[in-house]
Amino acid sequence: MAIGWLTALKLVPWGDVIEATPQAVKAARALLQKRKENQAEPTVDASGEVHISKAMLTQWRQEQVVALETIERLATTQMQLIAEIERLRQRQRQTSWMVVVLAIALVALIAWLIGQR
Predict the structure, then answer these.
(1) Domain segments of the chain: what residues?
(2) Position with higher pLDDT, 62 vs 24
């Protein structure tokens, strides 16, 4: 089983993963930095109504876009990894069947050789 995982890890397009990682990290850090810089809070009046400024709403929308882009990049990378793992599972299944067929052929060959004596 460990060999299968090692093979899977070797076949992952790590160049793409490594290329996408800094962008995702930068986007996440930028999002957190913006969040720290703009600590504007919505105001609540005496009647309990919440008031949100236009700037806060714009900031929240921008944060949402950045978060969605980051999630999309991570999901794409994950899909590539899952597809590669599934391909390896199919290859492992085929290899297992080949081993079974070869084992049966070997047993038949040994039986035939013993019968020839």
Answers:
(1) 2-116
(2) 62
